[in-house]
Amino acid sequence: MNKSRIRSLALWLLAGLLLLVWAFPVLWALMTSFKSERDVLAYPPTFFFTPTLDNYRAVIFGASSILHNLWSSMVLSSWTTLLTMLFAVPAAYALARLHYPGKRSSGFYVLATQMLPPMGLIIPYYLVLQKIGGLDTYSGLTAIYLSFSLPFAIWLMVSYFEDIPYEMEEAALLDRAGRVRTLWYVILPQVRGGIAVTTIFVFLNAWNEFLFAVVLGGNHVRPVTVAMFNFISVEQTQWARLAAGAMLAMAPVILIGLAAQRHIVKGLTVGAVKGGGRR
Amino acid sequence: MNHSGNVRIEGVVKQHGSFTALHGLDLDIRSGEFFALLGPSGSGKTTTLRILAGLESVNAGRVLLDGQDVTHKEPGERDVAMVFQSYALYPHMTVSENIAFPLRMGGTPAATIAGAVKDAADKVGIGHLLSRRPGQLSGGQQQRCALARAIVRQPRLFLLDEPLSNLDAKLRLETRAELRKLQRALRTTAVYVTHDQEEAMTVADRMAVFMEGRVVQVGTPREIFLRPANVTVAGFIGTPPMNLLAATLADGTVHLAGVGMPVSSAGAARGEVVLGVRPGDLCIAAEGIPAQVDFIEDFGDSTILNLLVGEQRVKVKAGQAPQVSEGQQVRLGFPPSAAHLFDRQSGLRLGN
Known about the structure:
The complex is a heterodimer of chains A (279) and B (352).
Chain A: H1 2-33, H2 37-41, H3 54-60, H4 67-97, H5 103-115, H6 118-131, H7 138-162, H8 166-174, H9 178-187, H10 192-208, H11 211-216, H12 224-229, H13 239-259, H14 261-268
Chain B: E1 7-16, E2 19-29, E3 34-38, H1 45-53, E4 60-65, E5 68-69, E6 80-83, H2 95-105, H3 110-123, H4 139-151, E7 157-161, H5 169-186, E8 189-194, H6 197-203, E9 206-211, E10 214-219, H7 221-226, H8 231-236, E11 243-250, E12 253-256, E13 259-262, E14 271-277, E15 283-285, E16 289-298, E17 303-309, E18 312-318, E19 329-333, E20 340-343
């Protein structure tokens, strides 16, 4: 009784400590975003200051507005996510279910694209996009993003499909559902969690992408990650504005995370908890 | 109502790579019959069921349902329903949605579905659980839900793949009897796969015994019990199964352990044989085969005596309090008509 109490107290303390370590940079940036440039540079750092919304005003309405960039990020990430999921779900289902020679190795080839360092691909990608007029276009950058997100999403989805017993599908076939309706009514509802998790990961990866965007984008397509970079210049770094921009850039990510938390946890523990059909 | 539902399997061959699961199978199942496919695991009985369902293709041969060739028809086009060993309930649907699913997919108007679902659920006694999800049901209830999903669409054929094997012993006996009653009431042909000979014996109108991808015997449980076609079937059927002893046969008498016992089924056959006698047909007698009592299993209402004849083990089914004790030397007798004789080489039954 007493022992378990100490135990839970220790666990809470540990959790709090971990949370603090993890959240510190975020909290620091949050605080910085409400400071004036002068307060930011004050040394030792001040924790008591007059909060100001100037930085937010500047990054939303001012000359250094990042609204356009947020929109850019949203368009890029949404298209990437939509197209990825559209192709990845059926592809993963096929990989999980069909038997064909070389199936094992094809799974490896799908993943192999993930093993190349992105740096090595940047020059070929640049040259290809330049040839076909895809530099600084949404379609060009989306295509590049797809080449990374698709294998990743397929690989993730396959494991969810593989968790569904064959007999479930056979039962649906005997119940006159046919292939397509079996997929729609029986299989997909059971991988909902997996689809949610994969969608979120793909979206976040696209949202956070920087390297390809900075090289292959431009004035037209400039996602928020690249825009943030502009706050850092040779003469000075506008820390407070950078922080305010970072807060805005993070907002959708955090909102999605909170909204889908239940799904994510459930999706990640799939396999540990089996559906009711099995004993 | 469906009066139909007869099945004909003609020369079906099934190969998995280099392994032959079925070697040219022929089988006739009559309409309205409760037909068991019995055999040890790997004997091809489940493969046969899956071929009937259309879940498995064939390498040769034909499958006919009501005289119509369905060999290459999709599972959904055959008008058959199946209960899987794992039940394969859809975990994201309620019981009622599970049962309604085959009707919905078949295009039954929504207005009639609700009534049909309730009806089917009541027949198997889960009418009060319609809004639950499979995960909230006990094993027995899940099994009934799977059953309801099969009967709701009134198919011409039921396929049951070891439907009771996931239930505990007591529930299995109850459900076995209910299944039998349900099938009788619906009068729909049912094909039932099991490796449990007792289950097949008690439930089936007729059965086929599978061994290594072949049907070795087809008949009513009684026929197969009384006249097993070969040594393997004899050693598989019965609780406990038949005693099988190496012996020699000459002039209507089998010789083993130095004594001769008269048998009535020998005919003119002679030579090296296997003598088969059911445990219930053996008794302790004043004279007969010498044996030593090894140990006694007491079941309360009966006992099984485990004896040694030379080095061969023999089981004898005896009454409540046999007058023997462990280690004792006894003699075993049996009526001449109780002897089953099999050729030692081929394993086939001799005489009648």
